[in-house]
Every structure is written in structure tokens, then in C-alpha cells.
Amino acid sequence: MHYKFEFRPYQRKFVRAVVTSHGMWEIREGIILCLTDESGKVGWGEIAPITWFGSETLEQALNFCRQLLPEIREETIFSIPDDLPACQFGFESALQGVRESRSEDFELLISPPPASVTYSGLLPAGETALEAWQRLWQQGYSTFKWKIAVYPTSVELKILESLVQSLPASTKLRLDANGGLNFEEANLWLTTCDKLNANSELPVEIEFIEQPLAVDQFSAMLELSRRYQSAIALDESTATLKQLEYYYNQGWRGIFVIKPGIVGSPSRLCQFCQHHKIDAVFSSVFETIVGRKAALQLATELSQYNRAVGFGINHYFAEDDAVWLENLW
Ligand SMILES: O=C(O)CCC(=O)c1ccccc1C(=O)O
Ligand SMILES: [Mg+2]
């Protein structure tokens, strides 16, 4: 089988810049691609790399796309090298789209997402979180993720105290350090989490701390996971399938955050998750509706422990997705 292949790079400004321990991120750049088979069936895919997270660069993805034009064979899609994980995701999900497609329009893309998943809402770093959760709560979120390791630990721990006091009963809170804590700070956070989680008067659960230490500190994170009750999730450490396999083999049995948009081949991801029954939390890479559709479908199929998915609100970007896509194409 071969397919007509087209692609368009895009740039979209976030409604609000994303602030992490790596700094400010204001514009999402990526590639939308389209495959058409001989009978006219169409599938869409998105390549949305995050280089600071361990995927290829946009430039590498663009170069890969350019040398493929104007046609691509199915074998080529399944032999995209592992150092282009966001490309593996984009092309395989487009291929999947062709298989499910009935027509040439955007119909499938803008259909509503699966209703069976629960979503985690993303709170901004710092004390803005204290107000930000309210709007998300009104929209139906009851799991929140707060970015930490952006301000000094002592400042953030004070905000945490207020946050858990003000959050409604039976909400869950995730803390995402993006690898920005040192060992001592991580111990402080986990001690605090254990204390808060043990307090039966506090109706809020701290679900886990995400990537407390840098990727090269794996044995320290393993040590922390044994030392504390509160759970730890690997995120940056498990950005790609190869890393996922590696840290699983190194004995990690805590939570694995999986970002389908950059982790690599969806079919290999399915095999891995189903074989090892890992405790996975699926999460966005702030992709557009195209990648989001494919990533959420995977998340629904592969979520085993009823964890909320980190696909926040549908409004990362100012412009409406459907309008933007019509204009791009
Ligand atoms: O996981 C979520 O809940 C939201 C997505 C998110 O936080 C994220 C999005 C893009 C890049 C990195 C991250 C992250 O988890 O660190
Ligand atoms: Mg994270």
C-alpha cells in the first residue's frame, strides 16, 4: 500500500504561556500531515515535538517529511527510526485514521472525545493556582495538576498548605516538578505529602509527585519511592518507548506518565502497556485537535487504573481548532 503524503508546518500561540521549571513556553510549533489512499480515504496526523523533553527537534521532523514527498509506503511508516518518536506517532496515527475514514472531510477529527475518561486540569505555577482551580472545578474537573519547582520550595510549600485547605473535598492533586528539585527538596516535598495524606481531616488526596528529580537521578527516585508512602510518577524519564522499557527493566513499578505525542510508535506502545500492565497516566504535549484525538483514543484503550488523563482543557490556543484547521489546509 502507498499513500499520497502532504504536510503543513504550523505555529500557534498559547492562550497563556506555559511556565515550567524549564522556563516560559509561548508558541506551539508542529506539523499537520495528511495521508490519502488510492480510494480517496484520508487520515490526519500531527507531529508535535518537545525537544527539551527528549524528542526530536521540529527541524529534524521537517527534514524527514521533506525527503518523503510526494508518496509514502506503509513499510516506511513502520520503519521510522526511534530517534524520531513524534514522527512515529504522527504517521502511525494518520495511517490509523485512513483505516477508519469514510470521507475526505474533518468530520472525524471534530467529533466529541470519548466520554469514558476523566481529565486532570492543569494549574499554573505559583500562587495563581489558588484561584485558577475554581474555574476548572466549575467546568467539572476534580483532579488538578500544579507545576512546582518554579519558586523556592519554602514558598511553594506554603502555597500548598493553602491549596489543600481550599480545594473541595475528594479532589485529587498532582504535583509536577519537571525534574527541578534536588534530593533534599524532594524529601521535603514527600514528607509534606505523606503528612497531608495521613491527615484524615484533610479531604484532599495528593495523588503523586511527577518527576521530582532530573532524568539522570533515577536511583535516587527509586530510593524516594521506597522511602515514602506518597506515589512518584516518572515523566521526563519515560518520554520515549526506549526509556519506558529501560526504567521498567530497572525495576520501576511506580507510575509512568506517557505522552503519546512524543513517546513513539502507538502500536509498540500498546504492546508494551498491555504486556506489562503498568500504572500509566496519559498526558498531552499541548498538541492541537489532530494529535489530541489520536492520543486520547490511545489513552482510553490503555488506561488500566482509572487515572485521570492529563489533557486539561480543550483551550490551549486562542483560535478555535476547527477554524484553525480549515485555514491551515
Ligand atoms: O500532564 C498534564 O496534566 C498536562 C500536560 C503537561 O503537564 C505537559 C505538557 C507538555 C510538556 C510537559 C508537560 C509535563 O507534564 O511536564
Ligand atoms: Mg510532567
From TrEMBL:
- The Mandelate racemase/muconate lactonizing enzyme C-terminal domain is annotated at 126-231
Q: In which pathway does it act?
A: Quinol/quinone metabolism; 1,4-dihydroxy-2-naphthoate biosynthesis; 1,4-dihydroxy-2-naphthoate from chorismate: step 4/7; Cofactor biosynthesis; phylloquinone biosynthesis
Q: Record's InterPro entries?
A: Enolase-like_C_sf, Enolase-like_N, Enolase_C-like, Mandelate_racemase_C, OSB_synthase_MenC1, OSBS_N
Quote any Pfam family the record assigns.
Answer: MenC_N
Give the residues annotated as active site: 147, 259
**Which biological processes are named by the entry's GO terms?**
menaquinone biosynthetic process; phylloquinone biosynthetic process
- Binding-site residues for Mg(2+), renumbered to this chain: 176, 210, 235
Instruction: Work out whether the entry's keyword set contains Ribosomal protein.
Output: no
A molecular-function term among this protein's GO annotations: magnesium ion binding
Which keywords describe this protein according to UniProt? Lyase, Magnesium, Metal-binding
Catalyzes what? (1R,6R)-6-hydroxy-2-succinyl-cyclohexa-2,4-diene-1-carboxylate = 2-succinylbenzoate + H2O
The record's listing under HAMAP family reads: MenC_1
Q: Which family does it belong to?
A: Belongs to the mandelate racemase/muconate lactonizing enzyme family. MenC type 1 subfamily.
Q: What does this protein do?
A: Converts 2-succinyl-6-hydroxy-2,4-cyclohexadiene-1-carboxylate (SHCHC) to 2-succinylbenzoate (OSB).
Output this protein's name: o-succinylbenzoate synthase
In its UniProt entry, the species of origin is given as: Chlorogloeopsis fritschii PCC 6912
- Gene expressing this chain: menC
